[in-house]
Amino acid sequence: MTQKLKIPSPLVSLLPVLVLVVLLFFTIRLLGADALGGGSQVCLLLTTALCAVIGMGWYGVSWKDIEHAIVNNITGVSTALIILLIIGALSAAWMLGGVVPTLIYYGVQIIHPKFFLVSCCAICAVVSVMTGSSWTTIATIGIALMGIGKAQGFDEGWIAGAIVSGAYFGDKVSPLSDTTILASSVTDTPLFTHIRYMMYTTVPSILIALVIFTVAGFSHEVTDSSQMAMFTHGLAERFHITLWVLLVPVVTGILIARKVSSIITLFVSTALAVVCMLLFQADILREVAGEGMSNAEALYKGVLITLSSSTSVPASSPELTELIATRGMGGMMDTVWLILCAMCLGGAMTACGMLGSITRMFVHLTHKLAGTVTATVASGLFLNLATADQYISIILTGNMFKDIYKKNGYESRLLSRTTEDAVTVTSPLIPWNTCGMTQATILSVPTLVYLPYCFFNYVSPLMSIIVACIGYKIVRPLKKNKE
Q: Which of 156, 210, 228, 269 could staple 252 via S-S, CB 3.0–4.6 A?
């Protein structure tokens, strides 16, 4: 019989978290948004080493136990890593296949000055759902909308708030989003089960935001919308805009509704988008491939480059050029690297008993449903503030509360939903968080200036608590799921 190990106190268990906070603070201060390219990963590995030293030196934990926990953690997210790579290929194929440009082309044209703010939020929501990336949405169509809104006389805080609200709606619910995949994977929840369950809190939150933006839009007098016409003209000039390419998102939606496996759905969607590239955007593929080869070779090379690596096709404006740039599977490697390093930290903290020690601090708040969800929201927000990174916060929140939810008889989808409600959407509201820092830099609007207008982002965690208090669609312990 193995000897029972001594469990670290909550104070000792929090030491690695505090060290991580300090390391991330200086790393993000020095590297900014580039911290995700390696700096944050090094911080995670250094903190992992600290956990191992504490566990092995003072609490009798063996290295084999730590290594086993790390391997188990990485195994648990292996499917998510595969999905992330497919998503990199899919997002590139959707862009250069004309799917996203067509959606933007028709979406932008529905904007009327009186409905600019609500349309701004809605367009960003659609684009982010299609791309799975709030960062890409904000850095591309968001920049264009900022210029249009300023030209029409809107306050920059309102414009940025509408953009961020819409962009993080898609980041939260899109099956292409890495945070959506990560939250479902960490909590052992099937991806589409996680997405469907989030709708009970996400749809009311975005509807509240859209109503507020609609009312606010009618209080402004606006003038020129010529920039909008220039933007749509640039898209039509660069791409073959056709409604046929919209069959791709339609088929993808059908597969999702029929609960087809995530990997199969994403693969089929990518393949259809590649067909659209070959049929409608052959000129762009040849441009990506370069000269000096036959037409068939150019098309084949163009597809390979698009799916695997970064592409940048010149357009009529710098904003449009940035919009249609893609990263492919290679662009997902920083996220994959970050997840692997975070899994190392989570495994080390688990093996050393630190996560268990920290979760026991929340036990007295988790006797009832509302208390459990509130504690999860508070923990997720705290970790977002402390670690300055949404990926790390999602992983730590999911790991800390997984056993508590299981012990109390609640479904894993409740934890995955609450984690996203608490972490994903609040990350851009924190000035020193990588998300807050990045969006403020891209939009040239300080985080604290747009924060009051990001209605979706701070209504979401409140909605999660409200729904928990009501108990709507939450399966109680010892009751069978009737859905």
A: 269
